[in-house]
Every structure is written in C-alpha cells, then in structure tokens.
Amino acid sequence: MMKLIEVRTTEELENCLKVRKEVFVKEQKVPEEIEVDEYDRFPEACSHWLALDEEDRPAGTGRWIFYDREPDTAKLQRLAVLSRHRGSGLGARLLQALESSAKDAGANYAILDGQCHAEAFYIKQGYETISEKPFLDAGIWHVRMRKRL
Question: At 84, phi and psi to the nearest 5?
C-alpha cells in the first residue's frame, strides 16, 4: 500500500522534485527553469506531499498554497504521478490528501489549473471547470477548476 506523507525534510522535497522532473520536464517537455519555483526552495515554503510505494520509493507528489486572491481558497499545484503508478488510484488519493490538509488549515475551497487531458479526472473528484476557455501554461493547455472542501 502506498503511503502519503507531508514533506518535512529536504530529502523528501528532493524526492518530490524528482517525480516532477520525470513527469513534467522529461515526459511533458516543460522547461525545468519554469517548473521549479520559489515554493520549492525548502520544505516549509508550502504544503508539499509525497507518495511512496511499498519499497519507500517516490511515486507521486503534489503541493498547495493559499491563493492570494481568495484567502479562504487553497491553490493545488504540481500534482504528478509516475507513469508506472497511473491508473492505481494514487492521483485521487494524493488529491484527497492535499484537500484534507488545506481544509485543516482553514481553506473552504480548492482551485487548480488542470491540464485539459486530466479535466475528466478532476470532474470525477468533484471539481467544476470555471475558466471560460482553455489557456496555455508552460506550453500545455489547462483549465481552471474549483471545488468546495
């Protein structure tokens, strides 16, 4: 069974970045210099989460921050699952962990910018699309989505 942990150490954060590099930089060709940002400098910069497989190897990651335009809203970001773990339910479990963590911290809503190919996944998890049309982010089409926590 996979375990989900809130990142507390630099090593755990580095494992999150390894997953993201594999998914976003290598698979999706997102330039590394825009994939990593100020929230990745140290574990406390935001709420990072890491999924570990049965052998404690990184399998997925995600993070959230409070959204600066709506103080009661968490912005979920950088949700990524390694290809060999997709279809296992890990993405949904990671999303639930992020939502639960944000709700515990006082958020009433979650928003995210989901890649268009994943829109149906997020709808299945209770999100609704709130952007009028898709938009490009890092060269990939996205939609803004929202859910009441």
Answer: -70, -10
